Amino acid sequence: MLRLLIATPDEKSLSLIYSILDSALYLTPFEVTSDEVDTYTALKDRIEKKCDDVLVLDWQMKGSETPRLVTELLQYNPRLRVVVLLPEHYRQYRRLIWEAGACNGIPKEHMDQEWLSTVLCIMYRAMEREAALSAKLSQG
């Protein structure tokens, strides 16, 4: 199971993400659970609990401070996979969010079910491989 957290302060964006997620789930061969937060405080509290595998982070949560936020969140939970939804006019921040530790970034306007299902599958398979490697190392 993949535990997905959506962080956006915008109800319209949340609806868009869920509609794409609902369609993407038809394409994924594993279970995905989801939850959402709409404030920085709720996001930080949730990440500190380490109960999520993937974070879909809307740029609107922190604007130009989003790369710093990614770094901060990964300090609380280094195993978290972060996907940042960038606004179309801030594409130049993609490199900064990657440098901060995000796994993926895409302008929100370009998100679709195919992209999201692919991203979730890649992250799920990476988690499976990490768990198998960890188990092997702990045995040896």
Structure description:
With 140 residues, the chain is α/β, with parallel strands linked by helices. The chain has a single domain (2-139), classed as 3-Layer(aba) Sandwich (Rossmann fold). It has five helices and five strands, in the order E-H-E-H-E-H-E-H-E-H. The protein has helices at 11-24, 40-48, 66-76, 94-100, 113-139; strands at 2-7, 32-37, 54-58, 81-86, 104-107. The chain has a five-stranded parallel β-sheet with strand order 2-1-3-4-5, with helices on both faces. Helix 4 links the parallel strand 4 (81-86) and strand 5 (104-107). The longest helix is centred in the C-terminal third of the chain and has 27 residues, at 113-139. The mean pLDDT is 94.
